[in-house]
Amino acid sequence: MRTEQPKVIHLKDYQAPDYLIDETHLTFELYEDRTLVHARLAMQRNDAAASSALPPLLLHGQELELLSLSLDGRPLGLGDYQIDENSLSLQPDAASFVLESTVCIHPETNTALEGLYKSGKMFCTQCEAEGFRKITYYLDRPDVMSSFTTTVKADQQRYPILLSNGNPVASGSEDDGRHWATWEDPFKKPAYLFALVAGDLWCVEDSFTTMSGREVALRIYVEPENIDKCQHAMDSLKRSMRWDEQVYGREYDLDIFMIVAVNDFNMGAMENKGLNIFNSSAVLARAETATDAAHQRVEAIVAHEYFHNWSGNRVTCRDWFQLSLKEGFTVFRDAGFSSDMNSATVKRIEDVAYLRTHQFAEDAGPMAHPVRPDSFIEISNFYTLTVYEKGAEVVRMIQTLLGEEGFRKGSDLYFERHDGQAVTCDDFVKAMEDATGADLQQFKRWYSQAGTPRLAVSEAYDPSTQRYSLTFRQSCPPTPGQAEKLPFVIPVKLGLLDSQGREIPLRLVGEGAAVGTDRVISVTDAEQCFTFVDTPEQPLPSLLRGFSAPVKLDFPYSRDQLMYLMQHDSDGFNRWEAGQQLSVQVLRELIDQQQRGEAMSVDQRLISALGSVLDNDRLDQAMVAEMLSLPGEAYLIEISEVADVDAIHAAREHARRCIAEALFEPLWRRYQANRELSRQTPYVAQSEHFARRALQNIALSYLMLSERREVLAACQEQFETADNMTERLTAMAVMVNSPFEAERSAALATFAEAFKDDPLVMDQWFSVQAGSAMPGGLERVHHLMRHAAFTIKNPNKVRAVIGAFANQNHVNFHALDGSGYRFLADQIIMLNALNPQIASRLLTPLTRWRKYDDARQALMRGELERVLASGELSSDVFEVVSKSLA
Ligand code: B3K
Ligand code: ZN
């Protein structure tokens, strides 16, 4: 907890460390009521930072009880060093020395889940970003890289498995029922990549032969009851290892790679060297208990953490402002992997929908920051959609500009040049430039300027000269601390369609011949015109194909033009995008009608467009499912000037009902065909099967809106007899959101009884109910929080109940009496003391107060003020609340 006003840390103040740590030797003695940590650090002055006199040594440390300290074997007494709540400082008398300390810490009462803590019966760690300082006094900054040797001692019976980074080198037993194991990590690493695990764990074992023929042991450790849920993660791991060799030329480096699943974890997973620690929700998956989406999430997170071994661990960040160096790049890499494993177009659609809904909202709110932030109070608050998702888009644009081959040359040079170093985003871009000769200086504004650029496009056609011009105007709204922005480099991938649905060859003024029908132009000025010659008729432009830049594109398409693009665009992403834009236009009309108190009437063109999609048996079923999904409420809120959540909900539900009614026959036909296949085929976690179930399930959710008895019967049949969670959960969710009260309660009770002992399945049961827009949302949430399976100390439970309510249940959360806001603020105040990172994350919906009407704005601000005044705030919560109110 904070006792003084928190300090703002600025990128411009970065200074190289005064001292380095060459070797770190740690011994942990784990007990039930305390843990002793002995550290022996071989240190030396950092020459790069040398001035004449030896500077003082300042080590980070928090919540540590110092038991002993010695310098080169000489015990230090009280007058030899200073301690405050964040550090220990002393004056070394030689340029290299050995510092030894023993501290006592309390993992058994650590509810913040940062540093060393207990999850259930096991010990585990989470050190990124600045958690290692809660383990021992250290230079806890990523530009200090050391080799680590770690010995863990614990009771043999309770903790038969003792793990740390690197390779196991020795182990043994002692007479008193305790045992020990020593691990050695030869690769120098920053302390944030340190990990330790001790517990009664079982493991699934496999092996991988690397491209140079080395044998690597692969192990996934879980609590015994989960041993049958590891195969999917293991398969994903092997596929990731092969993919990184084939696509990036990156080989694994240690003799063993381990994953450990823990139930209490603040985020998805952590890439600790050789010992990844995962939230159990990001590793455990089998047909009966995890949905298709969960299977795909496991595959992506396993890949993401594995890929960090190069993009993050071998080459790490100089300071935390460079976080996107590893995160943006690694998200880009895992997206490439997922696209190759599943449908690339569907993966892109999902990523873009997510970015536009959530990252664009962040970029327009009080916490907006550049991909490389200039300052922060609490770094934990900067593991954001901007750093991760927009950061990945920035890397993707570099690839679009350099081409795949150029990009690979750049990444090869980056890994080779910086192996073993802690570097910056500038170093990354420099490697891309040096490998290809490209000039990315203006492009780098994507790292330093926050906000989502708007790209307005207008057209002009002159039939007499057969010239077609597109004029691009870019602008970027002000964001906190950045009033004015300079023009970005915006790569726009485009094509031109003729009236026969064909693509016109593209030849710009000044070019000798046409260059393809699909190409990338770079918009670099505030206003810029591109003229195409040899354009025999007025074309219809297909712009920003594949979402080639993270911008808000604005082109005045008519509804008929959008329908034309839905049918003829050669770019699958843009066919989907045309459908989304058409839906947005229709939904906006309904929202207006609703607000004016008129009867809502859905433009039949949308229904007939969706009808043709449904009738097209040649289309990938996953694409059909995506095309049938209307833009979500959160996205409709994001694109509103002032969001009217009730009108948005009413309009979207009305449109869904009209679609269900008009397209009942084709939906029913496709539902039954796919359900029949599901009945006949055992579950497989593979992309065609995901696609088939996705279409089946969206069809079911439409069909249930008809409230017909035969649909309810089909839904119950699916719920009761499905062999997998994807079908079972959807069936339950549509019943929960239906008026069939008795059936709904019966399904919820059956489900809870069957899965009461599986916490991850119960999380799904919780979130389906907490996220339901049916009336009485808040009472339901209170009720759920009294359920035996709920605990406020487990982040997955908090996300499943409180998070689902505040982030997905818009009509209930935004209730006009302010009850939803008051509830959320109460939870945040309580969690602030228990787990500041989780408390701070929960604030997100309240930070968006500017989106709503005056009455709701006042209520939301009132709750933020109440949090601010509630007592001693963690730096995490303080930063978000104070910036939101500024
Ligand atoms: N690097 C971790 C995130 C750590 C978050 C610390 N608050 C997971 C990941 O991005 O792979
Ligand atoms: Zn990551």
Automatic annotation (TrEMBL):
| Catalytic reactions of this protein | Release of an N-terminal amino acid, Xaa-|-Yaa- from a peptide, amide or arylamide. Xaa is preferably Ala, but may be most amino acids including Pro (slow action). When a terminal hydrophobic residue is followed by a prolyl residue, the two may be released as an intact Xaa-Pro dipeptide
- The top EC class, named as a word, is hydrolase
Q: Which residues form the Peptidase M1 alanyl aminopeptidase Ig-like fold domain?
A: 451-555
User: What EC number is given for this enzyme?
Assistant: 3.4.11.2
Q: Which Pfam families match?
A: DUF3458, DUF3458_C, Peptidase_M1, Peptidase_M1_N
GO function terms (MF aspect) = alanyl aminopeptidase activity
* Cofactor(s) the protein requires to work: Zn(2+)
Residues covered by the Peptidase M1 alanyl aminopeptidase C-terminal domain: 560-886
| UniProt cross-references to SUPFAM superfamilies, sorted A to Z | Leukotriene A4 hydrolase N-terminal domain, Metalloproteases ('zincins'), catalytic domain
PANTHER family with a match to the protein in the record? PUROMYCIN-SENSITIVE AMINOPEPTIDASE
Q: Which NCBIfam families match?
A: pepN_proteo
Q: Please give the name of this protein.
A: Aminopeptidase N
Please give the organism: Stutzerimonas tarimensis
What gene codes for this chain? pepN
